[in-house]
Amino acid sequence: MNSQREALLRASDNTSATTAAAGKGGQILRNMAARAFTNKLLLLLIVFCLLAANGALIYVCFFQNKK
After folding, report:
1. What does the angle CA 49 – CA 54 – CA 42 come to, to the nearest 5 degrees?
2. What are the φ/ψ torsions at residue 65 (nearest 5 degrees)?
3. C or N: which end of the chain has fewer Cβ atoms within 10 Å?
4. How far apart are the first and last CA of the chain?
């Protein structure tokens, strides 16, 4: 009876450790997803700025100098 009790206690400890590890893993995944989203937004901002700069350069080169 005592060995069964010890086995159940070990199983309970293992379950608690597994639950804690899963929670930590979930938090890490949420942080990674937030960083990926932030990186995508930053990338879109950079692309938009580059497109605006290209558009301004084309406007200045082709439409401003025609006098």
Report:
1. 20
2. -85, 0
3. C
4. 100
